[in-house]
Design brief:
With 180 residues, this protein is of the alpha+beta class. The protein is built from five helices and four strands, in the order H-H-E-E-H-H-E-H-E. The chain has two domains: 43 residues; 111 residues, no CATH class. The chain is elongated.
């Protein structure tokens, strides 16, 4: 029978203690999240940061604005026709879920076709795709942010123009624009 050396026993005890502490922290923060108070301390923020290396540190919403022939501006995305409204404040759309934004232009083009089909709007000639973004730590309520950082909540938000394009006007029906 092989007898364990004191060094191997100490290493095993340290590994068991580390794993136990790690699992206890995981259960503590997960339990706090389930009860609605998951990020009340800075330790929870750093624990999330270390656990999820690809955790996004900024929040964003996407807004598409179209300019009509008469010069009016119309918000195309998000619109009232979007069925999915998620997030804590109910302002997260399916376009916002795709972090890479690969679906963004396709969703805007779909909104353009929908607007053209209804005929309610002037024809849209130019579209600008914006991203409204801010650091994720600014999502905390002001009182929690102040207790954590020791300074007032700055309410900083930024806009960036992601893409812009001119809309090619398609004929209204299949017979329009065809030479006899």
């Amino acid at each position: 029978m092989i007898r364990p050396t004191p060094t191997s026993v100490a290493r095993r005890a340290a590994a068991v203690a580390f794993i136990t502490a790690y699992l206890a922290c995981t259960l503590w923060f997960a339990g706090g999240r389930l009860l609605g108070d998951g990020s009340a301390t800075p330790a929870a923020y750093f624990f999330t940061w270390d656990m999820f290396l690809f955790h996004y540190t900024e929040s964003l919403r996407r807004v598409a604005v179209g300019r009509t022939q008469s010069g009016k501006f119309v918000q195309l995305v998000p619109s009232g026709l979007l069925q999915y409204r998620g997030g804590v404040q109910g302002d997260l759309t399916r376009v916002d879920l795709d972090r890479a934004g690969g679906y963004y232009r396709a969703a805007v083009e779909h909104a353009l076709h929908r607007a053209a089909a209804t005929g309610d709007l002037d024809s849209i000639v130019h579209v600008e795709l914006y991203e409204h973004y801010w650091p994720a730590k600014f999502n905390y309520p002001p009182e929690m942010y102040e207790s954590w950082c020791g300074e007032p909540h700055p309410h900083r938000r930024y806009w960036r123009l992601r893409e812009e394009f001119d809309v090619e006007q398609a004929p209204r029906n299949a017979h329009e624009g065809v030479a006899p």
